[in-house]
Write a structure and sequence with these properties.
This protein is mainly alpha-helical. Helix content is 59%, strand content 0%.
Length: 133
């Protein structure tokens, strides 16, 4: 191994290549750490956005479900009210209403008799002019 008297380094090609590789690996490692850190930040931001989206979708679904439930409850309450009304009628039938008594109307003698109605004269049949007439 020969050391250079000017700079104090070994100028063998294997050593020079190894030093360059080590320096390149160090630079890449530093860049990778920084990129991983930035990538980690981006992943966290994406996760936050996805979580916000999931929460908003859950809120919307809850509102839709609540509206559906309210409509269903109203429908069932209406059915229950109708059934209750029918049961009340079956259990406590109402007394039949008495039939109204007929009232006799006597014609007044001052009035002149109504004129007799004559039937209208028959309408003569129309003559057909053919198929399209």
């Amino acid at each position: 191994m020969a050391i250079c008297p000017d700079c104090g380094l070994d100028h063998h090609p294997e050593v020079i290549e190894a030093v360059a590789e080590v320096e390149a690996a160090e630079v890449l490692a530093e860049g990778a750490e920084g990129a991983a850190h930035e990538e980690g930040k981006a992943d966290v931001e994406v996760a936050k956005v996805e979580a916000d989206r999931d929460v908003e979708v859950a809120r919307i679904n809850a509102k839709v479900e609540a509206g559906w439930q309210e409509a269903r409850v109203a429908e069932l309450e209406g059915k229950l009210s109708g059934m209750s009304e029918v049961l009340d009628r079956l259990v406590n039938p109402a007394a039949p209403e008495p039939a109204p008594e007929p009232v006799a109307v006597e014609p007044a003698e001052d009035e002149p008799p109504a004129p007799e109605e004559k039937p209208a004269p028959p309408v003569p049949p129309k003559k057909s002019k053919g198929w399209w007439g």
